[in-house]
Amino acid sequence: MSWQWDRIAEDPVDFLALLDEADREYILNGLSARQRRELNERWQQWAHDGQNPDDGDWRIWLIMAGRGYGKTRAGSEWISRLARADESLRFALVGATVDDVRKVMVEGESGLISVAHTGEHVEWNVTKGEVTFPSGAVAHVYSAESFEKLRGPEHHHAWCDELGKWNNADACWDNLMLGLRLGEKPRVLVTTTPRSISLLRRLTMQQGVELRGGRTDQNHNLPHDFVATVTALYEGTRLGRQELGGELIEDVEGALWSRDLIERQRVPSVPDMKRIVIGVDPPISANGDACGILAVGLGDDGKAYVLADHSVTGASPECWARAVAGAVEAWGADRVIAEDNQGGNMVESTLRAADLAMPVKRVHASRGKSARAEPVAALYEANRAFHVGAFPDLEDQMCGLVVGGGYEGPGRSPDRADALVWAMTELMLGRAARVPRVSLL
User: Fold this and answer.
1) H or E stretch at 419
2) In whole angstroms, how large is the CA radius of gyration of the chain?
3) Residue 283 CB coordination number (10 Å)
4) What is the C-alpha to C-alpha distance for residues 179 and 186, in angstroms, rounded to an integer?
5) What are the residue ranges of helices labelled H in 258-357?
6) pLDDT in tens, 163-219
7) In 282-409, at which residue ranges do the beta strands (DSSP E only) sit?
8) Is residue 113 helix, strand or coil?
9) Partners of 291 in the beta sheet?
10) How many CA atoms lie within 13 A of 39 on its CB side?
11) How far is CA 203 from CA 170, 198, 290, in A?
């Protein structure tokens, strides 16, 4: 096969593109490991248009495309190219979790280590969460779960992967952008499958953003059988439009709440309150989901109003209990409604330890999340529940709860939406909210 390589080495990408699939596969299978690596390193030749940025005056390069489009490879190649050119650069690598950054962005098949050129040694220090390039440039690993760690460090550039699946997306993004202040022109690359969260919707409309979108089948390097199979299975479905077509779907099919409904129920002010309760959905652990903490009031008009979202993420039991106590004090609430599935007496004892001197009602979930939420969603439809202002994190979760079960919103669990459901149920659907009826015999 050496004669074939000599023949195509001058312009291998163009040569291979002229061949049919069988001939191309025959030649590729005959290449040595060195020849394969050399071909792989000619990124600028065989990358498709969506994997290279324009030379324009952009600050954020957003690749929002279907699975298999080549988003990860584009990110790795962009960071590596910048690192080769400037030894002083400091990068931020941000993913949903540290494990995601490690498995995909650093160690993955298209990660930073894999795209290193022949003779380049990319040093990966797992303990420190640092990638050091041969030039001396350094990339630091961060996660949306621990977004506070981005408060303080400064960077020249950043690569954010699967932003649509981040917990605490807005807070993490804000901390990152405030620290992106080194060099003359800091830039961010976002690679993500579309997901209808407020941050992604905002970025698509923001100035200084170069938006690239595309379908899975635009990456001609994917196996034909894979593309044909997934297209046959999902083409035209909501999942297919999002995961393969790269579309940003505003509403989840079959969601209990639509965004139009929530917008309709948004009000700037409230009547006098008859009652205010704090709904609480405690996390299983400090390293997991947020502790959902929602302040909800019952107005003199007999309608319910979401007043505030006091939810906290990554907090210890002591910290989230203090947050609950702070919400009680801020709103003069008369009761805390807390789910006890994950702790029973622990939930109430934790709240008592935070000097919460008020009634705590423990509620137990005997039905699934969607089943519990359906009567509450009906209150919005009936014009009996409102949001005082905007609560993007809560609303993204609400719009991810699906009729009949399932959750397709951001994060692993709709913790804020659960807290809302408990509070609304107490005020509008519980025994205390029922009006006595007199039956005439």
Assistant:
1) helix 415-424
2) 26
3) 23
4) 10
5) 259-264, 317-331, 345-353
6) 999 988 999 999 999 999 999 999 999 999 988 788 998 898 888 999 988 877 777
7) 292-299, 304-309, 335-339, 360-363, 385-388
8) coil
9) 312
10) 21
11) 11, 9, 24
From the list 12, 78, 15, the residue with the least C-alpha distance to 50 is 78
Q: Give the SS3 label for residue 211.
A: strand
Q: Provide the token pair at 69.
A: 């489009």
Which residue shows structure tokens 């939420």?
Answer: 373
- Cα 398 to Cα 262: distance, rounded to the nearest angstrom: 9
Q: Which pair of tokens denotes residue 153?
A: 């460090």
Token code pair at residue 301: 């008009």
The CA distances from residue 348 to 92, 323, 385, 434, in Å, are 40, 14, 28, 26
The contacts of residue 154 (CB under 8 Å, 6+ apart) are 90, 179, 180, 181, 182
Angle of helix 369-381 relative to helix 415-424, nearest 10 degrees?
Answer: 60
Helix (H, G, I), strand (E, B) or coil at 391: coil
Tokens read off for 342: 């994950």
The DSSP bridge pattern shows strands 90-95 and 385-388 to be: unpaired
Residue type, 274: K
Burial 51-80 (b: 16+ CB within 10 A, else e): beeeeeebebbbbbbbebbbbbbbbbbbbb
State how beta strands 209-214 and 187-192 pair.
unpaired
70-103: pLDDT as tens digits:
899 999 999 999 999 999 999 999 999 999 999 9
Provide the greatest CA pair distance for the chain.
Answer: 101
Decide: 214 and 50 in contact? Cβ < 8 Å. Answer: yes
State the pLDDT confidence band at 67, using cuts at 50, 70 and 90. confident
pTM check: above 0.90: no
Residue 239's SS3 state is: helix
- The one-letter code for the residue type at 336 is V
Instruction: Measure the CA–CA gap between 361 and 348, rounded to whole angstroms.
Output: 8
Backbone angles phi, psi at 178, to 5 degrees: -70, -25
Give the integer Cα–Cα distance in Å for 226 and 272.
59
What share of residues in the chain are helix, strand, coil (percent, to 5)?
40, 20, 40
Task: Give the C-alpha distances (Å, rounded to integers) separating 338 from 35, 273, 328, 371, 421.
Answer: 62, 21, 13, 18, 11
